[in-house]
Design a protein that fits this description.
Blueprint: E1 2-8, H1 13-17, E2 21-22, H2 23-29, E3 37-42, H3 52-62, E4 66-68, H4 71-78, E5 83-87, E6 92-93, E7 103-108, E8 111-114, E9 118-119, H5 121-130, E10 135-143, E11 146-153, H6 164-174, E12 190-195, H7 207-219, E13 222-227, E14 240-243, H8 252-262, E15 266-268, H9 271-278, H10 280-290, E16 297-300, H11 305-315, E17 319-322, E18 332-335, H12 338-349, E19 355-359, E20 365-372, E21 375-383, E22 404-407, H13 414-427, E23 431-439, E24 442-450, H14 465-482
Parallel strand pairs: 1-2, 1-3, 3-4, 12-13, 12-14, 14-15
Antiparallel strand pairs: 5-11, 6-9, 7-8, 7-10, 10-11, 16-19, 17-18, 17-19, 20-21, 20-23, 21-22, 23-24
Helix pairs in contact: 7-14, 10-13
């Protein structure tokens, strides 16, 4: 049998009609020896950190009581940035109702108790699913492509006299219901957001891989949700963020990673990894310092005749020029003669204070070693695009990329694997893809990629479902280390 406690910190007209337990009594009298399964509906004021309302939910969780709202929801509402985005949604007006202006409603246990003549039931249900709290003030802001919703906690004093009976009826009914959890629904301890961009031409993971990440997370007790950047306005409700959108420093991927770290949320990949991997100047300087085997590389800061002559003497033709920030073979150029070198250096220095010059080494394929927390996860050989010197040929839609081989990591040549692991250690302990060229028994690290490709049918071709279980298991490990 389930016992429901309504815990309050102040008197109101509702408390006179509803059997309640005051916070001090809950603090003193619970848990009870041999008590039945207990659910706490926390009606205290939770807006202030370390208030009685905050401690009510915190103690309830410590005592093994089911509680609404949870501490996680309280913290999400306290940030004053609790926005939800319902893309494609429109308000459903009744006759003569305006749906173009901001509207405010009051929710009690996910049901509308004060509103205009617009049907809010579907929106109220979705808001309560995202932020399950007994009383919520909700502001609806209709926009062209959907509805932006601002959510704040509400108090008993916010319930108007005209709605007291309706609120009382809802609370009385909720004491006997399953609230936000249907019978047989699996309980998840952790919530993970996977950041994706449906409009990205070459995303780090295809739909098949994303589906498998979600299923792997669920097997480990992690509720996993695919979200866009617009949907992460309320990042604090998640325990983890997994970035599966191509990262850049002056970009929302970096800003969201930074925000996650500030909130104490587990994030892969972290801001340090993004900073280090996105800039090849850092990587190659670090490779030199840590003696990671790599191709001969120099930094260019001007296009003077002396500088260009030195490049030609040191590298010869062809040579490779790279922008410090580039991905998927973009910003990488093969230079064949002096005039092209001068023009391209001038062009690239207009965008970046430094440009990388690197020796040219053609191989039929590049190794890609996936590394997670210092361990090799997968290995692939990526072959050059047809009639091209790189894996990706952005000038050809027909032959955009070459073929691949997926191998077990124990079949990777030892010198290639050691070079990859040494390069990954330079960056950190996240999820990386290390590109390595191999020639005459020697390995040359090209770069370390944060947020590397994991596509169904390619990188998972050897390990299969275990690829996704390994990644989700690392999130689980980090969640457990961080604590609830």
């Amino acid at each position: 049998m389930l016992t429901t406690l309504f815990v309050v910190d102040t008197d109101s007209p509702l408390t006179k009609s509803l059997g309640v337990t005051y916070f001090n009594n809950y603090l003193r009298d619970y848990p009870k020896l041999g008590e039945q399964k207990t659910r706490v509906i926390n009606l205290c004021d939770t807006e202030r950190y370390l208030s009685q309302g905050y401690y009510c939910s915190l103690l309830a969780e410590a005592r093994g009581h089911s509680v609404f709202p949870s501490v996680k929801v309280i913290n999400a509402l306290r940030t004053n940035n609790s926005f939800l985005w319902f893309e494609g949604e429109k308000l459903k007006p009744q006759e003569n109702a305006s749906t173009t202006k901001e509207l405010s409603i009051l929710l009690c246990m996910g049901e509308v108790i004060s509103s205009t003549n617009v049907d809010f039931r579907d929106i109220a249900r979705r808001v309560f699913q995202e932020l399950p709290a007994p009383l919520l003030n909700v502001t609806l802001m209709p926009e062209k492509k959907g509805i932006r919703v601002k959510v704040n906690s509400a108090n008993l004093s916010d319930v108007p006299d005209s709605s007291l009976q309706a609120c009382l009826d809802i609370l009385a009914t909720s004491s006997k219901s399953q609230l936000n959890r249907s019978r047989g629904e699996k309980k998840y301890r952790w919530d993970l957001a996977i950041l994706v961009n449906e409009n990205e031409q070459v995303p780090p993971s295809n739909k098949g891989a994303l589906t498998r990440f979600v299923k792997a997370g669920e097997k480990l007790g992690i509720r996993t949700q695919l979200v866009s950047a617009d949907e992460l306005v309320n990042l604090s409700k998640f325990d983890g963020l997994f970035i599966r959108e191509t990262t850049a420093i002056d970009h929302h991927t970096y800003r969201l990673a930074y925000q996650a770290e500030e909130l104490g949320i587990v994030v892969i990949d972290d801001t340090d990894s993004i900073l280090r991997c996105c800039n090849k100047v850092f990587l190659h300087d670090a490779f030199n310092y840590h003696k990671v085997p790599s191709l001969k590389t120099e930094f260019i800061s001007d296009s003077s005749p002396e500088t260009l002559e030195k490049l030609i003497k040191n590298f010869g033709f062809p040579m490779v020029l790279k922008l410090p920030e580039s991905s998927f073979s973009k910003g990488v150029f093969k230079v064949k003669e002096a005039e092209q070198l001068k023009n391209l250096v001038d062009e690239l220095l207009a965008d970046s204070a430094l440009v990388l010059a690197q020796e040219y080494l053609f191989t039929d394929y590049d190794w890609r070693i996936g590394v997670l927390n210092g361990r090799a996860l997968y290995a692939c050989r990526y072959y050059m695009a047809r009639n091209h010197w790189q894996i990706y040929n952005h000038g050809s839609s027909r032959n955009f990329s070459g073929g691949f081989d997926a191998l077990p990591t124990f079949e990777v040549p030892r010198h290639v694997l050691q070079a990859a692991l040494k390069a990954a250690a330079v960056v950190g302990s996240g999820l990386y893809g290390i590109d390595v060229k191999e020639l005459d028994g020697k390995a040359f690290v090209l770069e370390v990629n944060d947020n590397p490709n994991i596509d169904h049918g390619i990188e998972d071709a050897y390990l299969g479902e275990e690829t996704y279980m390994q990644v989700m298991s690392e999130f689980l490990r980090r969640f457990e280390l961080r604590g609830h």
